[in-house]
Write a structure and sequence with these properties.
The protein is mostly beta strands and 159 residues long. It is 11% helix and 34% strand. It is built from three helices and ten strands; from the N terminus they run βαβαβββαβββββ. The strands form two sheets. It has a five-stranded mixed β-sheet with strand order 3-2-1-9-10. A five-stranded mixed β-sheet has the order 4-5-6-8-7, with no helix packed on it. It starts with 7 loop residues before the first strand and ends with a strand. The mean pLDDT is 95.
Length: 159
């Protein structure tokens, strides 16, 4: 992984529900690291993402098959000098992000893309990259981390 001082690109994907779209893979190319924020849906998804970059994936509420038991419920990462917490459902967050020193909380579940900073903590949901739900956009995200600063970006996969 890149050292502090250089830029680290983190691809963020969630709620694939077993569908890994070619557009999602294309959007994640160039990532130094990939985070999957749960509801993976199929054992083939993480290995396919690992062909692009190292992956941390957490278990979502639909990840109930035996293969998914190996996915953690949450994860704490240190990437590019910042501490990132990953959980599928933000409503299940049980710690104080500021006290824990998190620069970002990555979640999925709602299928709603969101990037919002509250009390200097970035709350980032890449939306859903899997099957369309309601009229929501098909999206993934990207975090550019440089010198301890996170620049978030939501990427709409629909042209």
């Amino acid at each position: 992984m890149a050292q502090v001082g250089s830029e680290v690109v983190v691809g963020v994907i969630s709620d694939t529900h077993g569908l890994l779209r070619p557009e999602a893979l294309e959007a994640l190319v160039g990532s130094d690291f990939i985070i999957h924020a749960g509801d993976v849906g199929d054992r083939s998804i993480v290995p396919a993402l690992q062909e692009i970059a190292p992956v941390t994936a957490v278990r979502g509420n639909i990840d109930t098959e035996p293969w998914a038991r190996g996915l953690p419920e949450d994860a704490v990462l240190k990437i590019g000098g910042v501490k990132i917490y990953v959980i599928h459902n933000l409503k299940e967050l049980r710690s104080d992000p500021i006290a824990e020193g998190y620069a970002a909380i990555i979640s999925g579940h709602s299928h709603l893309p969101k990037q919002e900073t509250t009390k200097e903590v970035l709350y980032f949901n890449p939306g859903s990259a899997g099957p369309r739900r309601f009229r929501l956009s098909i999206t993934v995200g990207r975090l550019r981390i440089r010198e301890g600063t996170i620049l978030p970006e939501l990427i709409n996969l629909e042209k």
